[in-house]
Design brief:
Elements lengths: L1 H11 L5 H16 L29 E9 L6 E11 L5 E11 L3 E3 L5 E5 L2 E14 L2 E14 L2 E17 L2 E8 L12 E15 L2 E13 L6 E10 L3 E10 L6 E12 L2 E8 L9 E9 L1
Antiparallel strand pairs: 1-2, 1-16, 2-3, 3-6, 4-5, 6-7, 7-8, 8-9, 9-10, 10-11, 11-12, 12-13, 13-14, 14-15, 15-16
Helix pairs in contact: 1-2
Length: about 300
């Protein structure tokens, strides 16, 4: 039922036609994948994080590679992956490619009874695009131009999106960020897109077990998608440049009753590699969704 509900949200709320309905359903699948983000999407960092905010902080690495896998519980049956590569391009900044795919599995064709009468029903959404970022006057700017395809059974819908992002340290220890996600319409009530915003503040820094520790507080917002806004509050603990822990609680907006969910993650840096493990707390006894990621930086 949860898997069907994800699609019905996209199909039921868009009167503009099957293409718009499918685009909304595809974005709903990506919102499902985003439940494993323990930080607000606008504040997400890392190579694959250009999928959420293309304005990534300038990195001295010559080449960056990122790969993430996402798996939801069997009751939902969704899985996905993100991959990105970024390279330094002199005064142009950093340029790269990003790819993502998310879909549902084990959906079978039925007739008058629940017994399957054919093969699996393909349900997925993928995006492939080019991304750019560059610091300008102390502000990280970014943009991603992407091609999207969403398939629900036999019907496909495609579109192009142009997302813009910004991130800036406005005061010592205070960072603000914002980004569009799947932007293709100037409507503020378009269920196929989101607008992200976030603020991060350094609460404390000092020595911890012989290393430098930092505690940060975060607040994030997702809105402009045709239903009430999502609000996320959280915190992060960094131990030197080796280990980071992140937790967040989100009040998810909806077309009726808002819900709550929590997520947590850990990042470990080993040489030129950064490994990320994250999961949400699960809702309604359905189980948790997981995300595993690897970043590699080559100087």
């Amino acid at each position: 039922m949860q898997r069907i509900a994800v699609l019905l949200v996209g199909l039921a709320v868009v009167p503009a036609g099957p293409g718009a309905a499918q685009q909304a359903a595809g974005t709903a699948l990506w919102r499902l994948a985003a439940t494993t983000l323990p930080v607000p999407a606008a504040l997400a960092t890392g190579t694959a994080a250009v999928f959420w905010n293309p304005a990534q902080i300038e990195d001295s690495a010559r080449t960056q590679l990122g790969l993430e896998g996402i798996e939801t519980p069997a009751a939902i049956g969704a899985s996905g992956m993100l991959a990105a590569v970024r390279v330094r391009a002199g005064s142009v900044g950093q340029i790269g490619l990003v790819y993502g795919r998310v879909g549902l599995s084990d959906l079978t064709r039925t007739g008058d009874s629940p017994d399957p009468i054919g093969g699996d029903v393909p349900v997925y959404s993928f995006a492939f695009g080019a991304t750019w970022s560059r610091p300008v006057a102390g502000t990280a700017l970014g943009a991603t131009l992407a091609y999207h395809e969403t398939r629900l059974d036999l019907v496909r819908a495609t579109r192009l999106t142009l997302d813009l992002g910004v991130s800036r340290d406005v005061a010592p220890g205070l960072r603000v960020a914002a980004a569009t996600h799947f932007f293709s319409s100037f409507s503020t009530s378009e269920p196929a897109q989101d607008v992200y915003a976030g603020v991060e503040y350094r609460l404390w820094q000092g020595p911890v077990w012989g290393d430098r520790g930092v505690v940060r507080a975060r607040y994030g917002l997702a809105f402009g998608h045709g239903f009430t806004a999502d609000h996320q509050v959280g915190a992060g603990l960094e131990l030197g440049r080796v280990v980071a822990l992140d937790v967040g609680v989100t009040r998810e907006g909806s077309y009726s009753v808002a819900g709550w969910r929590a997520a947590a993650g850990v990042r470990v840096t080993i040489g030129k590699y950064r490994i990320t493990l994250a999961r949400d707390a699960g809702v309604n006894d359905l189980g948790s969704a997981y995300r595993v990621g690897v970043d590699a930086r080559f100087r």
